[in-house]
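User: Could you go from structure to sequence for me? I need the amino acid at each position, not a summary. Structure tokens:
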């Protein structure tokens, strides 16, 4: 999940937030009512092949993340446990109207349907072009993130250290360049996603 600091738009599942500096990890310490989840499997679920490179890069380039991983796994050496999340969407300050009254809310109840809606629009566009549905979206997202970084708004600020009562967790993961264990690959750039869903060669985009 994420959020921003100026309008405080935060995202979740990885959740993120919007600020003058860009999206940040959604956190109760930053004004949200929720904090993004994130971390690594503790029940020996292996990371799928399509995300291994991104996950290893995060742990290799960020010593604090590796220390958190070791603390979370009883100092057992890294063995490709599945990291999460895969992606983040805004999860803070969603304007909603209930019985004619405007209010703002936080949560995955907003960010999760948003990703589902994006996927529906991708499949609709592909259907109009005579193409099959996207299928499992994850391999597509990791491939596009590696080849075309503009497909995501990378969240590089914040961490998931705060609980709902703002208590600091002892094991926490910070946002970083590329995939990270608090906002995944970042929040999707829908226009780039749509272009790549229709033409995976990225002819209309500039490769990263």
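Assistant: Here is the amino acid at each position, in order:
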């Amino acid at each position: 999940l994420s959020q921003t600091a100026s309008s405080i738009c935060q995202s979740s599942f990885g959740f993120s937030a919007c600020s003058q500096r860009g999206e940040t990890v959604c956190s109760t310490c930053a004004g949200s009512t929720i904090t993004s989840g994130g971390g690594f499997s503790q029940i020996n679920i292996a990371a799928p092949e399509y995300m291994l490179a991104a996950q290893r890069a995060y742990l290799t380039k960020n010593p604090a993340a590796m220390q958190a991983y070791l603390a979370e796994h009883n100092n057992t050496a890294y063995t490709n446990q599945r990291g999460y999340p895969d992606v983040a969407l805004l999860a803070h300050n969603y304007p909603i109207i209930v019985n004619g009254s405007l209010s703002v809310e936080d949560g995955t109840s907003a960010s999760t349907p948003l990703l589902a809606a994006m996927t529906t629009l991708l499949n609709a566009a592909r259907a109009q072009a005579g193409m099959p549905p996207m299928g499992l979206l994850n391999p597509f997202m990791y491939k596009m993130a590696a080849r075309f970084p503009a497909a995501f708004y990378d969240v590089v600020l914040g961490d998931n250290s705060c609980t709902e009562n703002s208590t600091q967790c002892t094991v926490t993961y910070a946002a970083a360049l590329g995939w990270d264990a608090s906002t995944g690959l970042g929040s999707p750039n829908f226009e780039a996603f749509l272009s790549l869903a229709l033409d995976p060669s990225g002819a209309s985009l500039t490769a990263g």
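One structural detail worth keeping in mind: The chain has five helices and eleven strands.
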